[in-house]
Amino acid sequence: MISQKARFRHARKLERLAGYRLPDQAFHGATLEAVSSRLNFDRLDHTLHEQILNFIHSFMRCTCRETPQCGCPEKKFSREVLELRENGLDHRQIAQYLQEQYGIDIYPADILSFLEDSVHVLEAIRDIAHLQAMSTLSKRADAHIELLER
Predict the structure, then answer these.
(1) Contact predicate 59/67, CB 8 Å
(2) Which of 3, 55, 62, 72 could make an SS bond with 27 (beta carbons 3.0 to 4.6 A apart)?
(3) Residue ranges of the domains in the chain?
(4) φ and ψ at 8, to 5 degrees?
(5) Burial tier of 47 (Cβ tally within 10 Å: 0-12, 13-18, 19+)
(6) Global pTM?
(7) Tens of pLDDT along 26-66?
């Protein structure tokens, strides 16, 4: 999953603020827990403060009982990457956007690989939907494939 490749650029700053060692993976359980409850936001510089707030707002808002360990942040991140591609950004632009908006570093090649895998999954969905005479689902999958491949 693409969220496993996402790393906070300023993980060491977050670690110092949390007061204990944190992995640099943005969607690791310990990192999500620290970001959601243990950070003193007043001690963050303005840019990092905005990036962390954007991260929380975009990926960590859910009503699950197990939040932030529920899987919703990872799903929302994957959806964000797909939506950015469907809106016309290429893999390099997506990586740059994620870095500027959320302070997340991710290799453009990892994004490209995720997008290619997503197209293959959508093709399988389309083919099965076609076999099951689910034309609406087949058309929707086709539309998403077209947007991802342009």
Answers:
(1) no
(2) 3
(3) 2-106
(4) -75, 130
(5) exposed
(6) 0.89
(7) 999 888 888 877 677 777 788 988 998 899 999 988 888 77
